Amino acid sequence: xxxxxxxxxxxxxxxxxxxxxxxxxxxxxxxxxxxxxxxxxxxxxxxxxxxxxxxxxxxxxxxxxxxxxxxxxxxxxxxxxxxxxxxxxxxxxxxxxxxxxxxxxxxxxxxxxxxxxxxxxxxxxxxxxxxxxxxxxxxxxxxxxxxxxxxxxxxxxxxxxxxxxxxxxxxxxxxxxxxxxxxxxxxxxxxxxxxxxxxxxxxxxxxxxxxxxxxxxxxxxxxxxxxxxxxxxxxxxxxxxxxxxxxxxxxxxxxxxxxxxxxxxxxxxxxxxxxxxxxxxxxxxxxxxxxxxxxxxxxxxxxxxxxxxxxxxxxxxxxxxxxxxxxxxxxxxxxxxxxxxxxxxxxxxxxxxxxxxxxxxxxxxxxxxxxxxxxxxxxxxxxxxxxxxxxxxxxxxxxxxxxxxxxxxxxxxxxxxxxxxxxxxxxxxxxxxxxxxxxxxxxxxxxxxxxxxxxxxxxxxxxxxxxxxxxxxxxxxxxxxxxxxxxxxxxxxxxxxxxxxxxxxxxxxxxxxxxxxxxxxxxxxxxxxxxxxxxxxxxxxxxxxxxxxxxxxxxxxxxxxxxxxxxxxxxxxxxxxxxxxxxxxxxxxxxxxxxxxxxxxxxxxxxxxxxxxxxxxxxxxxxxxxxxxxxxxxxxxxxxxxxxxxxxxxxxxxxxxxxxxxxxxxxxxxxxxxxxxxx
Length: 679
What we know:
This protein has 679 residues and is of the alpha+beta class. The chain contains 26 helices and 24 strands. Among the domains are: 92 residues, Distorted Sandwich (Calcium-transporting ATPase, cytoplasmic transduction domain A), CATH 2.70.150.10; 141 residues, 3-Layer(aba) Sandwich (Rossmann fold); 123 residues, 3-Layer(aba) Sandwich (Calcium-transporting ATPase, cytoplasmic domain N). It holds the Pfam family Hydrolase. GO terms for molecular function: ATP binding; ATP hydrolysis activity; ATPase-coupled monoatomic cation transmembrane transporter activity; metal ion binding.
């Protein structure tokens, strides 16, 4: 095309070699054929598959448009070769440039999409390549250490993590103390102190001390692999809004084919019957060729590929950004539901509160040494797995001088009464620890003084535990689960976002109301069993709310599944994380706001993409059909239409990529970082 306008070369290209066929025409035919059939082969394949399944897609439009230009040009060249006076024009450059521009658009699109999945690549790179394996003897002494490929680590292997090294697999510390930077997994900026018994996550960085860890989850089971799988499946999953685009495309393509054929026919008949002056026809064409160019331009410019990219690109970028901020969103469905959320149901323990109960006060009703009292309590409670039991044992250790591994008196006939407390015989004395109903069950008199104490404890959002020894009430222990920092601010920000907050908990009404009052939640449901939590969620849905449930325990999983969006606190149980749609890796409540805000921003971007893609087609089709030609003499050659179509796809992808610069709401940056001090 360029050579045609260079004097000298132009004369050479115009030389006739067979009747009216020139060297230029033959060269263009030879050069465009591999582009049409080899480079453009993917469009033929795509069109064939689509038509075989009874649908028409973008490939059908491109195949039709380029074939029309190419085969008309072949006809024109062959006719010139067989006729002494036929001067035809070919459009070989149209089909070649169309295919080239569309593939360039696809290439830019793939480059952009590659950027959207950078989140996965970054996560994959977190895993260290090697690890130091320790061999221990029966007494736990180190016999040898050797460097191995981290893919060879097996469950229960003991690994040495030196300062500055990455933790090779999920596990728990068996020796040593250090601080571990977990920001790459949880988004939490401050290093986390680790000592014997603490869990560590593979891929995190050990900062200052040597740790020996025992591997618990390796390979595909580890937290890092699960996160990668979550992000991958999230980016592959279709958002329901994508179905709208699929439905539009289904009817859009046949409509475009009809429109382009109608455009060609209208212009052809108008030229045939002299409906417009001959001066409108460019010197190198006749009325048929002009009509054909208009028809091809319409077919090409209307390709709905921008429409098809509108949702998946935004979802990919949105989920990737979420992962980098410590908010794992499991796909388009979760994103779509989260942006509509107008009611959030919070669990109390571990969600609004820290989830680690601590003893705040002890009140004795009889004369007894506090150390002896806690000796009996700890001996009984050490056999229980309940968090409140663990809190009392920890406190008993402090009373005894904070021994590492204290030995408690033997507890015989230990019985755990689910939901009420425990009972055992310690030093031949019957010890019963639990709530008021447990005392009533064993006919232990609860004096008025104890009743008042319990009421006072519950008013202060604490849990009261009664202790009886040999059928006599000895005292009460007040246990509190401190509020998470920022819980109050999160609830108030949610109110400003017009999101209703509700608290549903299995705890007693006194504690529940007190916590709700502290954080500013008006609607409270207490003493709810797991299935009742799910029922409450369904009740709010029946009132027309789009409900999100935020929880952390196994008892929250039915409600997490029942809610429109389930959000699991990352420090919670595996079952809760599995049941949820969104996982808050940092266990920070403010990430609830980040998740909702990010989904709203992503959705506004998807809408913007749709407006852009559809608006572009509605504007482009009339121009391509020649609406401006009669008045302004402006027409859109097919190759420019192809370039414009490619540009629309790239612009939609770029619009989605702007989401990469997402920043969480400014209100969250002003949060005071408050430490939780536990006495």
